[in-house]
Write a structure and sequence with these properties.
1114 residues, 5-stranded antiparallel sheet
């Protein structure tokens, strides 16, 4: 009977259960890589709500909208990652993973809601090494009471009888109850003693605090050393900056100089530069950011450290807040004050720009352990992502390349330019605005919102990312997102993303990679040494199909957040691992036997399995630093080019030094000339028998000239080397005699100015190229016209000077009239491009393509070849040589590169208009760029109206200016009457001569596109019969809203044949020129070939060259 009644009961319940199941939330399948899960499915309803009032607002506490963090880790060791969210004004929340991406809120039962106060960052760490993750949270906010500011440490007590992990707050017991307005913590074994110490990133709650960098302050960052389980403040001992001007928002950890010791990177908001702390291996750090980085973000937010390009070196991604779209840039971008910018640089604040920065490791580490980086955010396409917070570099599609996630948005855009102007006016009218609750409420409600979508960028290789937000994320919505973390929440082998949002429920982004793609992966969980149970800091090297991936097991990532202490590594289509090494510390390397793909691998520290790590001996480099020119420098004078033309794209007065090499005294030793800027006399340096050089200052009377190029040649056929010098610069008015190019006659090693032999051409020059173009036995001269002073970009005239038996005559109008107003010529080369046995001329310049002048019986005719227009760019160098060994001369073109703010393509060129748009008697310069298919002015309303005040009437608000195209602002008719120049290509490369006037452009490899190329030399270094290249450049003189072109360190390009090259890293070649290089030259010193590098406003560099043998590994 009992059994019968049971079945009767079940029969009655089944219909009811079916009805209930139909009402339960269902997890939707998605064809997108990521799916934003409904909170009804996940049961995560956490929301970081910011309630604004008279005390809680951005006017009294600017970080009020900075949001909270998220930490992910397996708190009960059930193999599922749990999630902890911090709340600024309410309770923190802990969610226990139940599987299938569903969670249970265990905040109350676990005891982790937190005390009163403003919670910021959070970190999960096994601080007491009992095998259970604990939770550390940071506190800040507009408070004075210590109790509201003390950080909290929740020690995991293990699961209760219901299987719920419980926690006990013990920050005081461990010595970590810091009350210094903290943002985030990073746990790191800085002294390699086996246990984990802690870096604590604090900040000043007051905007723009004043203080000394070296001073100690409770508001500054702190460092705590683990002393047998108790944390002791050793800030002063370790040498980190701890001062009241710190505004740290991001912290990352990694071995940046590959010495086996962990280093630290801190990204700072406002004018305080970021900090890069290099571990000195003696219990201290040295801050080296200004040496290691050529520029950095200005309002630096979160950061992440990872090897994004799989070259075996760690890179650094830091976020800022410049918009992707023109409207956002023009309405919210902070004004750049040139005087303040330069004052900050001179005060040691470094070059800071309001863009994201991706610091790619150059592979070069100097003798002091300082690593050097190339900033490549513009090249990779991730420089502009709006008001961004958390960057996460991880392989989201498991293809073996690390992608990027970026959280975005802010509740109130208090930097909106129109709002800022209205607020300023309102506060001038209401002096009590910040003390009157009603007036503060008015200001708060007047501040615009700025929600924005979060970004996904797919790493496509080749130093490029593709914006995959709309391809990867279904129903991408705009939010105010802050802290974020990645983790494999459902154990399917791909990384999901968790995001903490302001005023909206947290986002759980399910990754469908494992279902949609066929890529493999390996997952590693660590059981570390006794005092580091989770193996924090362990480095992993994975080799598959000859490719290397490196990962480091640090939890702190992005912004105010931490990821689980394990690794998920994408393998692409590789179905097995060749080898896997775990570096527990610099001296403890463990080979993992038979690692299995597509499953979890538990890696346990095993002292018996430690292998001997063989120290790889550095091979002898091709270039060795030589000290033969120490103490010789180029000195640049100060000149404000923008005073005459406020919207110049870059300075025009910093193109020196001139550099020329020859044996000037007939002793069979090569000497050199170094040309200086105006105000400093140039010099000859004569080589002595011991290989040193003696300076001969014989040009005192010519100190007024700006020497930008020079060449030795025998103009009078008397058997010695005379000197011609090009005078350039922008310091003087048009037609000034200070622009005269000069000829110096060599008489027994002494040089005499021969103005009587030169025509009176007073224009700013660029290059001098010597050849006997009329084949009369006397060397003639081409002089390139760089620009018209104070009239950029009006085309300048170049000149041909015929050597009439020792006297030079300007024959431009007679034999090459098209050189008049030809353009902004930067370089030229004599070559027989049509193979008719006479010399032709090819020129390059800004807003120019390779421009050919064909020698037709002694007269030069401009040839319009297809490549001239389609390759129009900003070229700074050209050389000719037979790259492909087919018997004709090819051209090597040095262009602006692809790592600059300015972009150019056939469909969306970079443009300039020049015209007197407001009819006030002076011409106006307008740079134009394309943004989402429309042409907008590059510069903002504020600086544009300095040039043309009527813009303020045409566009009375920043809102209108941000919506206006160039045509809207300047007028279609005016634009049609303006000088209009375009650039379609900024890539450097080879113009391969296929004969019959057919030229094919082949771009250089990506590493050669990281900066402008100003100098090119060719030489067969490995003696394989093919000419290899040395290139160098940079452009440090950009206007201050455009990051400097400074990612180049000099580069060797190995010739692979058929116009193809591969780039060689500095750690292989030894070539390292971190300067604004303008000229390169070979010189023989004591019988050995050397390289001279002429750098603007910097020391001359020299390298001895070791000639490689055939088949050597160049």
């Amino acid at each position: 009977m009992k059994k019968k009644s049971t079945f009767r009961l079940l029969g009655a319940l089944i219909p009811l259960l079916m009805v209930l199941c139909s009402c339960m939330p269902k997890k939707q399948e998605s064809s997108f890589l990521f799916h934003n899960l409904d909170s009804d499915w996940t049961n995560i309803h956490f929301k970081n709500t910011i309630v604004e009032n008279g005390l809680t607002n951005s006017f009294l506490y600017e970080y009020v909208y900075n949001g909270g963090g998220v930490a992910v880790g397996d708190l009960n060791n059930d193999g599922l990652e749990d999630i902890y969210f911090t709340s600024n004004l309410s309770k923190n929340h802990l969610y226990l993973n139940q599987g299938q991406l569903q969670f249970e809120d265990i905040t109350a039962e676990s005891g982790t809601a937190g005390n009163k106060g403003w919670t910021t960052g959070t970190n999960m760490i096994d601080i007491n090494n009992d095998g259970l993750l604990d939770i550390y949270i940071c506190k800040s906010g507009p408070y004075k009471r210590k109790a509201l500011l003390q950080n909290e440490l929740y020690i995991n007590q293990g699961p209760n009888e219901d299987g719920v992990p419980t926690f006990k707050e013990e920050a005081e017991k461990f010595g970590l109850a810091d009350a210094g307005n903290s943002i985030q913590s990073a746990f790191i074994d800085y002294d390699l003693d086996g246990d984990l110490d802690m870096y604590l990133m604090n900040h000043n709650p007051q905007t723009f605090g004043m203080g000394n960098t070296e001073s100690l302050s409770p508001l500054g960052d702190q460092f705590y050393e683990n002393n047998n389980g108790k944390y002791v403040n050793v800030t002063r001992k370790v040498g980190i900056y701890s001062n009241a001007i710190s505004y740290g928002l991001g912290i990352g950890v990694g071995d940046l100089n590959k010495d086996g010791w962990p280093d630290i990177y801190v990204s700072n908001d406002y004018d305080e530069p970021d900090y890069m702390y290099i571990n000195q291996k003696d219990g201290s750090f040295k801050e080296v950011a200004k040496q290691a980085l050529n520029h950095m973000s200005n309002f630096s937010m979160g950061n992440d450290i990872a090897d994004f390009d799989n070259d075996g070196y760690l890179d650094i991604l830091t976020l800022d807040m410049v918009s992707e779209d023109n409207y956002g840039m023009k309405t919210s971008m902070a004004s750049m004050n040139p005087e303040k910018f330069q004052n900050n640089v001179q005060a040691g604040k470094h070059y800071q720009y309001m863009y994201n920065t991706l610091q790619k490791h150059s592979s070069h580490v100097d003798s002091n352990g300082i690593p050097f980086f190339s900033e490549v955010a513009q090249k990779t396409g991730i420089s502009n992502t709006d008001w961004s917070w958390a960057p996460l570099m991880a392989d989201f599609d498991n293809d073996g390349l690390k992608d990027v996630f970026i959280s975005n948005g802010i509740k109130r855009d208090f930097r909106n330019k129109d709002f800022f102007a209205k607020m300023k006016e309102y506060m001038n009218q209401h002096q009590d605005a910040l003390s009157n609750p009603e007036k503060i409420t008015y200001l708060i409600n007047s501040t615009p919102h700025r929600p924005y979508q979060n970004y996904f960028y797919k790493n496509t290789g080749g130093l490029a990312f593709e914006n995959a937000t709309n391809l990867w994320l279904q129903d991408s919505i705009t939010t105010y997102s802050n802290g974020a973390a990645y983790a494999d929440l459902d154990n399917d082998g791909d990384l999901d993303v968790v995001v903490n949002n302001v005023d909206e429920k947290a986002s759980i982004l399910e990754n469908n990679s494992n279902r949609l793609l066929e890529n493999n992966y390996i997952k590693l969980r660590f059981k570390g040494p006794k005092a580091n149970s989770m193996g924090i800091g362990a480095k992993v090297k994975v080799y598959t199909q000859g490719e290397l991936q490196e990962y480091t097991n640090y939890s702190v990532r992005g912004y105010q957040s931490s990821v689980p202490p394990n690794l998920t590594i994408g393998l692409g289509m590789a179905d097995q691992i060749d080898s896997l090494f775990v570096y527990w510390s610099k001296d403890e390397v463990q080979l993992v036997e038979n690692p299995q793909i597509n499953i979890d691998n538990i890696i346990s520290y095993d002292q018996k399995a430690i292998i001997n790590k063989k120290k790889i001996q550095d091979s002898e480099k091709l270039f060795q630093v030589a000290h033969v020119v120490e103490g010789i420098s180029h000195l640049e004078n100060y000149y404000d080019d923008y005073e005459k033309q406020v919207l110049l794209p870059h300075k025009l007065s910093k193109f020196g030094p001139a550099l020329a090499v020859a044996d000037i005294n007939g002793d069979n030793k090569e000497d050199f000339f170094l040309g200086q800027s105006t105000g400093t006399p140039s010099s000859l340096y004569v080589q002595l028998p011991n290989g040193s050089f003696k300076e001969h200052q014989v040009f005192h009377d010519s100190a007024i000239f700006e020497d930008v190029d020079a060449q030795f040649f025998d103009y009078d056929n008397d058997g010695d080397q005379d000197l011609i010098v090009a005078s350039g610069g922008n310091e003087f008015e048009q037609g000034s005699p200070n622009y005269a190019d000069r000829l110096y006659e060599n008489r027994g090693g002494r040089f005499y100015l021969r103005s009587d032999l030169m025509p009176q051409i007073h224009s700013s020059s660029s290059r001098i190229k010597v050849s006997d173009f009329d084949r009369d036995g006397f060397m003639d001269v081409f002089i390139g016209g760089r620009f018209v002073p104070h009239d950029y970009p009006s085309p300048a005239s170049s000149h041909l000077l015929k050597n009439d038996k020792g006297k030079f005559v300007d024959v431009t109008n007679e034999i090459a009239p098209e050189l008049n107003a030809i353009g902004l010529v930067t370089d030229g080369v004599w070559m027989d491009y049509d193979q008719d046995k006479d010399l032709d001329l090819c020129l390059v310049g800004e807003w120019m393509g390779p421009t050919f002048f064909e020698n037709q019986n002694g007269k030069f005719k401009k040839r319009d070849l297809p490549v001239t227009e389609i390759l129009s760019g900003w070229y700074y160098a050209i050389e000719s040589m037979d790259i492909d060994n087919d018997g004709d001369e090819d051209l090597i073109l040095g262009n602006l590169g692809q790592n600059y703010k300015y972009k150019a393509s056939k469909d969306e060129p970079f443009e300039v208009y020049y015209h007197d748009f407001d009819t006030n008697g002076s011409k106006d310069l307008v740079l134009g760029y394309y943004n989402f298919g429309e042409l907008f002015p590059v510069r903002g309303r504020e600086c544009s109206s300095q040039q043309m005040p009527s813009i303020k009437k045409i566009t009375p608000t920043y809102d209108l200016f941000g919506k206006s195209t160039i045509s809207d602002i300047y007028g279609h008719e005016n634009l049609s009457e303006a000088l209009h120049l375009t650039a379609y290509n900024f890539k450097s490369g080879v113009l391969l001569n296929n004969g019959n006037m057919d030229f094919e452009f082949i771009a250089f490899p990506e590493m050669a596109q990281l900066s402008s190329i100003n100098a090119i030399l060719g030489h067969d270094f490995d003696e394989d019969g093919k000419i290899d290249l040395i290139i160098g450049g940079n452009l440090f003189s950009s206007e201050i809203e455009t990051p400097r072109n400074d990612a180049g360190y000099g580069l060797v390009l190995k010739n692979l044949g058929k116009g193809q090259f591969t780039s060689l890293n500095a750690n292989k070649t030894g070539l390292f020129v971190p300067t604004d290089l303008k000229n390169l030259s070979f010189i023989e010193i004591s019988g050995t070939m050397h390289l001279l590098a002429g750098n603007n406003d910097d020391a001359l560099q020299s390298f001895s060259i070791k000639q490689k043998r055939p088949n050597s590994n160049l």
